[in-house]
Amino acid sequence: MKTRAIVSSVSVSVSLLALWALIAQLEWISPIFLPGPSATWQSLSEGLRHGELLHLTFGTVERMAYGWALASLIGIALGALIGISPLLRTWLQPTLELIRPLPASAIVPVAIAFIGLSPAMVLVVIAFGAVWPVLLATTHGFANIEPRLHEVGRVLRLSPLAFIVKVGLPNAMPDALAGMRLSLTVSLILAIVGEMLASQEGLGLAILQAARSFRSADLFAGVVLLGAIGFVSNSLLGMAERRALAWKQI
Amino acid sequence: MRALLDRLGWRGWVLPVTLLALAEAAMRINPVESDALARPTDVLNAMAQAIANGSVLSLSAQTLAAALAGLALGGGLGLAAGIWFGLSRAAADAASLSIELLRPVPSVALIPLSMLVFGFGFRMEIAVIAFTCFWPMLLLSQAAVRNVEPRLLEVARVLGFAWWERVLKLVLPAALPRIFVAFRLCVGIALVVAVTTEIAANPQGLGYALMNAQQSLRPDLMFAMLLWIGLLGWGLGAGLLWLQRTWFRHSLAQQP
Known about the structure:
The complex is a heterodimer.
Chain A: H1 2-25, H2 37-49, H3 53-84, H4 86-99, H5 107-115, H6 119-143, H7 147-155, H8 160-198, H9 203-212, H10 216-244, H11 246-249
Chain B: H1 2-8, H2 11-29, H3 40-52, H4 55-87, H5 89-102, H6 110-118, H7 122-146, H8 150-159, H9 163-200, H10 205-215, H11 219-247
Helix pairs in contact in B: 3-11, 4-5, 4-7, 4-9, 4-10, 6-7, 7-9, 9-10, 9-11, 10-11
């Protein structure tokens, strides 16, 4: 049963690829818009071996990773504070609820007005947009700590900080990691948008320029690479999540 | 409004109101000529003007039309595929690798491609929104159909229903509450992607107006547009959540 599923899913993917090659080969869609898989592959391998592509990929990954790390740090720290203290929750949460529904990309013009077209601006936008999933999930995780653990903390006379580090964080980790996974996707999207708007070197700008100069093979190569970044980063985090939470399964 | 205030509690409003009042006072006492800052009252003024001359309404209509058309296209296809994969385990298995490979492509990476194929305008924006909405709709409706009581499907087999009768008379009604939840999520996604596409490339709608206000150094209008986009998204989300609670209160009771 398992092998049959693998065979069928691989064969569907391969036939989709063949269909793409066929459409491109017969030029049902103009090659200006749709390069074949071989042209895309050629542009991809040439670009990775000799050209700029590897450099651009690292640029985008770096931007995404820094913004995501910043968002995760802020999200977990703020989420821990809000989650642990009912006082802070009543004063702060409604303000956060007001800001949260804003589309993250809508912050870009404001960030440009304040910071200008710089790498720092892109970083701020990524951190702003990606902080919400982590913040909400961590708050939820901290607010739902087993009440008896609070009593244990009081009996052991743990300071609030010690309670957060020793009891709160391990308990909120599953929620926080799920939020971090969501915010990784947001980080990639905002890194691309930021590069496009602020003309920062990276894959986002590269595919925009490729589209403007009708280099469709380069455009497809960039889109494939961006998909690969999304796929790889998500799988890596999934693996890390399973590892970090292995103790919970027992 | 009263009920809302009561529910949120007055404490929650202290921080934002104080901050805004402080900003207003500081900028009145010490007037600054800035490209980035505007007095809150000026922002409200700009918003009132934009509403009065009708520009906000036509811009919102453009953005919403693109968002809903993209949602109808991508969400409709996603729903059809989701029902199919939900009913047939073999079809779901066969498609799984292709879905895993295509789904991580970030939606905004398709903006240049869509621009190349369609140029500027509605079609380009709709294509990007449709691609983005397709995946969550597919996965959520597939899960919704999987969740349908299997005995209902046995009843359908006993009654000798054709496949379309099975879908229309049994599966869709049974999975409707969860499909509505998916629809509500996708409306939010569609609006965000529409605004993003307009900010990044497409010269129409609210996103472009927001970008334009920044570039023509009108911070008051920029914040007014931002506020409007936030209100629009919040209103749509709250409205759909209310509908979900009224229509599907019983069937979704076990969910948060």
